[in-house]
Task: structure prediction
Amino acid sequence: MKYYCLGIKGAGMATLACLLHDLGHQVSGYDDIRDWKFTQKGLDERNISIYYDQNHELDPDTIVTCSKALSEDHKELKRVKEMGLQVKAYNQIIGELTEQFKTISVSGTHGKTTTSSIISSVVNQELGCNYFIGDGRGHADVKNQLFVIESDEFNRHFLAYHPTISVITNIELEHTECYSDIEDIIHTFEQFSYQTKDLLVVCGDNQNIRKIHFDKKVIFYGFQEENDFILKNVVIDKEGSSFDVYQKNEFYGHFRIPLFGTHMVLNTLAAIIVCDYLGISKDKMNENFAHFHNAERRFAEKEIGTIVTIDDYAHHPTEIRVTLEAAKQKYPEKTLIAVFKPNTYSRTQAFTKEFAEALKVADKVYMTEIDSNREKQEDYPGITSHLVLENIPNGEIISEDTVEKLLEYQNAVICFMSCASISHLKDKYEQLLEESTK
Result:
């Protein structure tokens, strides 16, 4: 079949395009953004064509897929509809894929990408699997029986999925442009749990998850004693995190992973439970953990002289806080600088104070203006980054034109955080830094 993916550089769409290609379909796509994005690495490796205008033909039997986030008046979506092409929501196509395999679905407000990355890396090595990771990585082979998929609650996308095993890492208020309140989100996750066939692996420390009425087998995990799998003796050092796992009152095993922060330990425990359910031994898990490399833009480090830069996808207050805390844990002797690019007006409006409190973990905070690709500023009058900075002592606005401000710091770790592209800012700073150290 032939597929045409609109917004093909988006994390989810890029991954879907790679999967469809691997399953033998002809795939091409369109995007408004001409600049290179990390999500297109897999597209480039597969020579998938990306178009940026309306000057190309499409066969009449092409299936067009797009995210629900794409506006109905988008010029390319209007063009393909005028051509009479069949249009399917991208989560509908993914839902069809989940029914073709034994699917392991990883959901939650935070930690989806890392958890699905850990599970897929171990399972692919030991049993073989297809995978869909939200940083643009996807791979499929029709011979594989297992499919590990990061499952996003944005616009209720994951309600189109029908997994065999599901993970819920946590539930918090997020995507306020799609959900009315936290109860709406909890109810949606509950609906998702009902679509799971065999097993639910969920973080029992999260009180919002505890509000769900599960209708099938559930394994709770976390730090609290009432969970089925319990974390103890967590030690975080400059090389990563080590911890013990207990199954109720019995020692299950000792593990180590080259990731930082208690949130990463929780993500790893969810992966351990899934791998155990699939019959993978603890020794094999530890063997794979030792060589694990996290997803793109998840605590990605680069060292230049006495400076360490970290590129991270963090865009919610909770994610920002744990990213900064992990940086502080790994580099306690360095000055911690936060550089944050907000992605939506609605999220900034909903979490103004929470963003400020999370960013205060850093010694110094810089923010760019809001960069939104799916919301219009005129719909959110008065909502700017300054609302957050008003609550942060000595917080400043930064841009590509003023990035040289960062050159004043020595022996520092500088965290660049956003779900939008912040690479221009980071790359320019690193270039200036390298030139200054010659």
Summary: Residues 99-289 form a domain with the UDP-N-acetylmuramoyl-L-alanine:D-glutamate ligase fold (CATH 3.40.1190.10). The chain has 14 helices and 21 strands. The first strand starts at residue 2 and ends at 6.
